[in-house]
Design goal:
The structure holds two protein chains of two kinds.
Chain A (H helix, E strand, L loop, with lengths): L4 H10 L9 H15 L34 H5 L5 E2 L2 E2 L7
Antiparallel strand pairs in A: 1-2
Helix pairs in contact in A: 1-2
Chain B lengths: L13 H10 L4 H13 L7 E4 L1 H16 L10 E5 L26 H8 L3 E6 L36 H8 L5 E5 L6 H7 L2 E4 L20 E5 L2 H11 L29 E5 L9 H16 L3 E5 L7 H16 L20 H12 L2 H14 L4 H24 L4 E5 L16 H5 L6 H6 L3 E8 L5 E8 L4 H15 L10
Parallel strand pairs in B: 2-3, 2-4, 7-8, 7-9
Antiparallel strand pairs in B: 1-3, 4-6, 5-6, 5-10, 9-11, 10-11
Helix pairs in contact in B: 2-3, 5-6, 7-15, 9-11, 9-12
The chains are: A mainly alpha, B alpha/beta.
């Protein structure tokens, strides 16, 4: 599977990573190389095999649906690039 | 002084230091000072990227008080280095990424909390590949860590991603260190530096508070100077944690007590598929020596087949990036870490895209995008689901080997000894990924794996072998490693040039 420049642009967009137009050909080439390497997986007969969902056969632990933590507003916001009035602040989202 | 305790205290093993501390032959403060002095003279190695001497001395003083009161745990007063991927309260923790620049956790990872609870002393944070993605510590935002093993003019990699941990242990900057292993990131750096390291069974050690790379593969473990030290550290790191839903609710055995040195009658599997084309004769010869050593110790050597092992690397490089693309979606410039400066009129999508382009290094960006692609509509079945099916087959191969009575599997760790810094710059991503060919299988199958130094190659660089064990049998695995360690008798140390 070869990745063309349009696909590379789309993947970058989906990943929310800004890639300049000039950098797209190299990115497409590298992604193609990596995906080409993955093509080996097509040699394997996986008929009737379920995709692994958990490395250890175990049921994920459940806990009671109760509040166990909280009242830590200042700790939660302490690392925010922009926090105001007890909230995370971001550029305008709604026009 | 106890047997073998020559040299300054920073060169001691954890076991030797523990015994000396308990006998009052040294204080935790003096032991810690010995390491801090070594660290201050080690900037050329770029192993410690955030130093915490004040915290270390506070912890050492508390440890001395605890030791004086009696009944101190094994790790009480033992100075350790902590990989930058572990969140440590009040100490920068950025997984060697610029996107976490300035991030100072408000909480403590379960592993470091357990180590500190046992009285361990933190000397600082250790260099690594960005988000643990790499085999050379060259993708670090701090610049590469340097291998203390230097045999010519070339500066070599200590491996990766736990390269700072391996370099720090090999250079005697600390007595032990924490690492994490998603595709070989404890075992490969241990092999490149002549140190030991164990990746425990998936679920043995809590992942809570460790910056996530690929959650179904990530597992933390100790790195050190001896198998006994690994047993001591792992005992303190392991255990059930309600905050990690994949953490196993199993009792933690006394790993050190399991080091009997008796492996008579055990069956050691030698996987045919690990004899890959182009493997250097020296690695092959080392592997043969390892087999002889275990046979001489009374184990039975059995040829086994892991037919799907050759597909482990491509399966890994689908699954790990897929999980990374999901995990790293959290770095959006909103809640923590870096946010790009925005131009007038930039909206929130511009903020995400610019922040992530500036904050993530090239390899991290590549893996996120590969993961995004293999998870995207139309390709999910062809790549991601197929890789997960192949993973199930890889795991089944191991299960069949263990069901046939195999106790542990002996294999090489790396295709070469440590390579030069920058040597891989011109290589394609796939050529770089080939470094992981022997190590990723254990992560895909969730198995414990331990790296043991075996000797020096013709260049004078360390080489090691790995043993893979049954799930949850770290105790038995460490005992096998202990036998191999004693038989190999690797005592060489790098000449101090830094």
């Amino acid at each position: 599977m070869s990745i063309d420049i349009d696909t590379a642009r789309k993947v970058a967009k989906l990943a929310r990573i800004r890639v300049e137009e000039a950098a797209l050909p190299k990115l497409a080439e590298q992604l193609s190389g990596i995906l080409g390497f993955m093509e080996q997986l097509n040699e394997v007969d996986v008929t009737g095999i379920e995709p692994m969902v958990s490395v250890t056969p175990m049921r994920l632990a459940r806990r009671a649906d109760v509040v166990t933590d909280g009242n830590q507003q200042s700790a939660v916001l302490a690392n925010a690039p922009d926090a105001r009035e007890g909230f995370f602040a971001v550029p305008k989202v709604v026009e | 002084m106890s047997m073998g305790m020559t040299g300054s205290a920073n060169t001691w093993t954890i076991a030797a230091a523990r015994d000396a501390l308990r006998k009052g032959e040294i204080s935790a403060v003096d032991l810690t000072m010995s390491c801090l002095t070594a660290i201050d003279a080690s900037d050329a190695l770029n192993a410690f990227v955030h130093k915490t001497p004040e915290l270390a001395l506070d912890q050492a003083r508390a440890a001395d008080a605890r030791i004086a009161s009696g009944n101190a745990p094994d790790l009480c007063g033992i100075p350790l280095g902590i990989k930058d991927v572990f969140c440590t309260k009040g100490v920068p923790s950025q997984a060697a990424s610029n996107i976490l620049k300035g991030f100072v956790p408000e909480y403590e990872s379960t592993v470091t909390a357990k180590l500190f609870g046992a009285g361990a002393v933190m000397l600082g944070k250790l260099n690594m590949d960005e988000f643990a993605m790499g085999s050379a510590t060259e993708s670090s935002c701090y610049g590469p860590a340097v291998n203390p093993w230097k045999v010519d003019d070339v500066l070599r990699t200590p491996g990766g991603s736990s390269g700072g941990s391996a370099a720090a242990v090999a250079a005697d900057l600390c007595l032990g260190a924490t690492g994490t292993d998603t595709g070989g990131s404890i075992r490969q750096p241990a092999a490149f530096t002549g140190t030991v390291g164990i990746k425990p069974t998936y679920g043995r050690v809590s992942r809570w508070g460790i910056v996530a790379y690929a959650s179904s593969l990530d597992q933390a473990g100790p790195m050190g100077k001896s198998v006994r030290d690994l047993a001591i550290m792992l005992g303190a790191m392991a255990g059930h944690d309600a905050k990690d839903s994949t953490s196993a609710d199993l009792a933690v055995p006394d790993f050190e007590a399991a080091l009997t040195g008796d492996i008579r009658g055990k069956k050691i599997g030698i996987p045919a598929e690990y004899r890959i084309e182009g493997i250097p004769a020296e690695i092959d010869a080392l592997w043969a020596q390892g087999r002889e050593m275990l046979r001489d110790a009374g184990a039975e050597i059995v040829d086994i087949s892991l037919p799907h092992a050759k597909y482990a690397l491509p399966a890994y490089y689908v699954i790990a990036p897929a999980e990374a693309s999901s995990n790293l979606a959290r770095y959006d410039g909103v809640r923590y870490g870096h946010r790009a400066a925005l131009a007038a009129g930039d909206g929130i999508t511009d903020m995400y895209e610019k922040t992530r382009a500036e904050g993530f290094g090239p390899e991290t960006q590549r893996r996120i995008m590969v993961g995004t692609y293999v998870l995207s509509a139309g390709f999910y079945d062809a790549y991601y689901n197929r890789a997960r099916k192949v993973r199930a087959l890889i795991k089944r191969d191991f299960e069949q080997a263990f069901a046939a009575g195999i106790d542990a599997i002996l294999a090489p760790i790396t295709p070469t000894s440590a390579f030069g810094l920058g040597e891989m710059d011109k290589a394609s991503p796939v050529e770089v990924y080939l470094n992981d060919v022997f190590t990723v299988t254990a992560n895909l199958a969730g198995l414990p794996g331990v790296a043991v130094p075996m000797g020096l190659d013709s260049k004078g660089l360390p080489m090691g072998l790995q043993l893979l064990g049954r799930p949850w049998d770290e105790a038995g695995l460490l005992n096998h490693a202990y036998v191999l360690e004693r038989a190999a008798g690797f005592v060489a140390k790098p000449d101090k040039w830094w």
